[in-house]
Design a protein that fits this description.
The chain has helices at 4-12, 32-36, 38-49, 65-77, 132-143, 162-165, and strands spanning 16-19, 27-30, 58-62, 80-86, 94-100, 105-111, 120-128, 147-156, 171-176. The two termini are 23 Å apart. Helix 1 (4-12) crosses helix 3 and helix 3 packs across helix 4 (65-77). It is globular. The mean pLDDT is 96. It has 177 residues and is of the alpha/beta class. A seven-stranded mixed beta sheet has the order 5-6-4-3-7-8-9, sandwiched between helices. It has a two-stranded antiparallel sheet with strand order 1-2. Bound molecules: adenosine monophosphate. Adenosine monophosphate (AMP) is lined by residues 26-29, 62, 65, 102, 125-133, 157, 162.
């Protein structure tokens, strides 16, 4: 388990804010400098995995930046990885959920046969903003018969209130902004 305070400080210094991307109203939290820093990247992955060791059967990683963190978290936990993808990307039968974004609507999908009934699943993403993406993923997993053991992200944008939408879940974030 990495020293969480030191890790927080290092990661906070690396997350880059890009105002006006991809839309004028948004301040985009760019995590790519965190990924490029070996100590930060490996530390974040270890921090995400640690509380869920031994209690997780699969990691559900949300397209696209969730894949970059969820893959190594699954590897660290020794579990399988389930990609939760944007509409139309998965080839086999899926369970899908439409949800509201800050602006507009989106649909996420997961392969129906990716989950065994009762699987204990950890959801991984990079940023919790409104929480809609993680909440839709939790709903997909629930409908597929999984039990969501937690939701973990690198960063939460507190002002957007995502935590309230995920109140049924064990939500863990390294940083709040
Ligand atoms: P949410 O509003 O929680 O459903 O966020 C949707 C997705 O968009 C999350 O998976 C984040 O990766 C991404 N996202 C939303 N807002 C931001 C932001 N301000 N900076 C970086 N990523 C964001």
């Amino acid at each position: 388990m990495p020293d969480a305070a030191a890790l927080r400080q290092r990661v906070a210094g690396l997350v880059r804010e890009i105002p006006g991307f991809p839309q004028p109203e948004v301040v985009f939290k760019d995590i790519t400098p965190v990924l490029a820093d070996a100590a930060a990247y490996t530390g974040v992955v270890a921090w995400m995995a640690a509380p869920f060791r031994g209690t997780t059967d699969k990691v559900a990683a949300i397209e696209a930046r969730g894949f970059i963190l969820g893959g190594p978290v699954a590897y660290a936990l020794g579990t399988g990885l389930v990609p939760v993808r944007k509409l139309g990307k998965l080839p086999a039968p899926t369970v899908a959920e439409a949800y509201m974004l800050e602006y507009g609507e989106a649909t996420l999908e997961m392969h129906v046969d990716a989950i065994e009934p009762g699987d204990r699943v950890l959801i991984v993403d990079d940023v919790i903003a409104t929480g809609g993406t993680a909440a839709a993923t939790a709903q997909i997993l629930r409908r597929a018969g999984a039990r969501v053991v937690g939701v973990v992200a690198l960063l939460e944008i507190e002002a957007l209130g995502g935590r309230a939408r995920l109140s049924d879940h064990d939500l863990r974030v390294l940083l709040s902004a």
